[in-house]
Write the C-alpha cells for this entry.
Amino acid sequence: MKKLIAAWAVLTMIFAAGCAKQEAPASSTPAAEETVLVKVNTDGLGEIAVSETGETPAFDDQYPMSSAFTHVKKGGTVALNARGRDDWQFVKWTKDGEYFAQEAEITAAVEADTEFVAVFAVGSTFTGPAVDDIKDAKTMADVLALPSNASSMSEHYYALHFELNGNEYRAVSFIDKDTAAKVFALDFDDPEYDKKHNEIIAPLPIDRIDNLTEMIPSQEEMDKSIGKTAGELLDEGWRFYWCNLQDKQLGMTNGLFSYTLGYEGELQPGIEADEETVRPLKITSVGYDGLGDIGAGLDKE
C-alpha cells in the first residue's frame, strides 16, 4: 500500500523593478497515512492467501505461499485464506498467539502490528464419526478422526493429540502390555498400517482428557527463565534439541511444550552444539513454539 505525501512549495515570483512581490498561498502538509504491519505465517504443511483490497484472497498454485507480510491502514482490514497440502488440513487461525477463528477464510480488522498464523494438522485416516463436544468423548474412536499432530505410547499408555472447537487436547488411555505389544508389532511399511493401528486403538477407553490450550504457560511465567543459563534449565528438566548460531537462538522443550530461547554468550566455532556445550549460555528471551512431547509425564503415573 503506497503512501502519498503531497507537499506545497511556496512560490515566490520577483518581477522587474516596480512590480510587487507575489506569493502563492501556502497550505499545510497533510499527515501521512498511518499503517500497521501484518505478518501471516503457517504452522504445519499448508499455504495462505492474503488480500488488503477486500477481494477474496487468491491462492497462487504456481508459487504457494507459506508466509507473507503486508502493510494495512490502521483500523483497516485484511482478508486471509488457508488450505492444507497433501494429507494436512486447516485447523484454525491464531492472532498474536491466541485462538482467533476456525474458518479458513476470514476478514480481520487490525489496529496495531499483528501476526496471524494458519495452523494445520495431519488429517486422520480413521473413517468413524468424531464427537462435536469434548464431553461426549468416551473411547479413542470418538477423537481419532479429529485433526491431530502427534501421538505417543509406551507399554502402559497411549496418548493422542487432537484439536476441537479451537482448543488442543490430549486424550490418554492407560493400556496393558499386550495391547502395546500389538501396536509395536505392526510394520510401518505395511500399506494397511493405519487401518490395523486404528483397529487396535479405537476401542480403548479414554481415561482422561487434558486441555493443552489451558496449560500453555503465560509469557510472565515463561519470562521467569530469563537470566538463567541453559545448564540451569537442563537441570530443571528442560531438553535441548536445536541451535541457531546466527540468530543466537536455542530450541528447547519443557514437558508438553517447545520453546525458542534467545541467548547471550558464544559457542566455540567447529564444536557441535549439544546439551553440554550450550550449558553456559545465558537466556535472554523465551517464546512459546507449540507442542513438544505429547507423552510428557505419563510414564511417571
Remarks:
- Residues 219-298 form one domain.
- The first strand starts at residue 12 and ends at 13.
- The two ends are 56 Å apart (CA to CA).
- Residues 36 and 113 are 5 Å apart (CA to CA).
